[in-house]
Write a sequence for this structure.
């Protein structure tokens, strides 16, 4: 099955880049405009040094994943990526989650209704950000006022299991949380130095058993570069068809999910 997917992926990749080179010859202007899309299609299919894993290969607890109604916009996790993330979360059955990058809190709220976990979510507010020197223009647009951060999760936080943390992820004090997390999601500032710093802290936050996921792998060049550098020391998977990369500690893909808590939410 994996061989068939690799063969099909290579065939698609060859077709994509054949079209790109033809455009470069016939219509150079069109090629320059389309090149980022071609590059993303290539990155989605193939990553040197990183194994691929289809979301369907992640063990399931047999329960339907619940999605909350809402509007997705720029900066929010696409639905296919969110499904894969939630599938991993339902397999891990974490008791504690750390999220780098809250934004509107759509991912946070969907995690909250699918697993019975305490969620710590960290974001940099506009008030604490200063002049954002060194930030790219696209990253500056994602920095929100504190009053808007996490707006999507407020209606599902009646039990107070979501804790909002504010600050620059490179300067934040993680000491109280080290080695206590079962699931860590990295989806904050996407610049290389930030991704590397967040990743190093994620490895320290993770306990003896659990998972780290990076979002926008296969989509943004700095995230790609950081994850590929980390993959030289750590076994990392690309979740096929998504912008997610996955690292597992103390877990095997042959292992069934943990038993779900009796008060855990599930879809009707």
């Amino acid at each position: 099955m994996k061989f068939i997917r690799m063969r099909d992926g290579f065939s698609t990749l060859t077709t994509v880049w054949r079209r790109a080179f033809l455009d470069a010859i016939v219509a150079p202007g069109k090629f320059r405009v389309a090149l980022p899309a071609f590059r993303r299609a290539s990155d989605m299919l193939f990553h040197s040094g990183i194994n691929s894993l289809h979301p369907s290969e992640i063990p399931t607890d047999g329960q339907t994943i619940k999605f909350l109604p809402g509007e997705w916009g720029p900066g929010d996790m696409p639905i296919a990526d969110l499904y894969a993330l939630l599938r991993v979360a339902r397999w891990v059955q974490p008791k504690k989650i750390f999220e780098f990058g809250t934004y509107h809190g759509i991912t946070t709220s969907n995690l909250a209704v699918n697993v019975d976990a305490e969620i710590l979510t960290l974001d940099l507010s506009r008030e604490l950000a200063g002049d954002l020197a060194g930030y790219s223009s696209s990253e500056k647009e994602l920095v929100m006022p504190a009053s808007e951060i996490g707006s999507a999760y407020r209606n599902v936080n009646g039990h107070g299991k979501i804790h909002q943390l504010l600050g620059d992820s490179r300067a934040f004090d993680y000491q109280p949380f080290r080695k206590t997390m079962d699931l860590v999601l990295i989806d904050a500032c996407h610049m290389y130095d930030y991704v590397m710093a967040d990743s190093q802290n994620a490895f320290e936050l993770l306990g003896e058993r659990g998972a780290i996921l990076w979002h926008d792998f296969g989509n943004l060049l700095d995230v790609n570069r950081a994850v590929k550098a980390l993959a030289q020391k750590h076994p990392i998977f690309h979740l096929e068809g998504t912008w997610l990369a996955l690292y597992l500690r103390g877990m095997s893909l042959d292992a069934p999910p943990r038993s779900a808590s009796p008060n855990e939410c599930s879809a009707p």
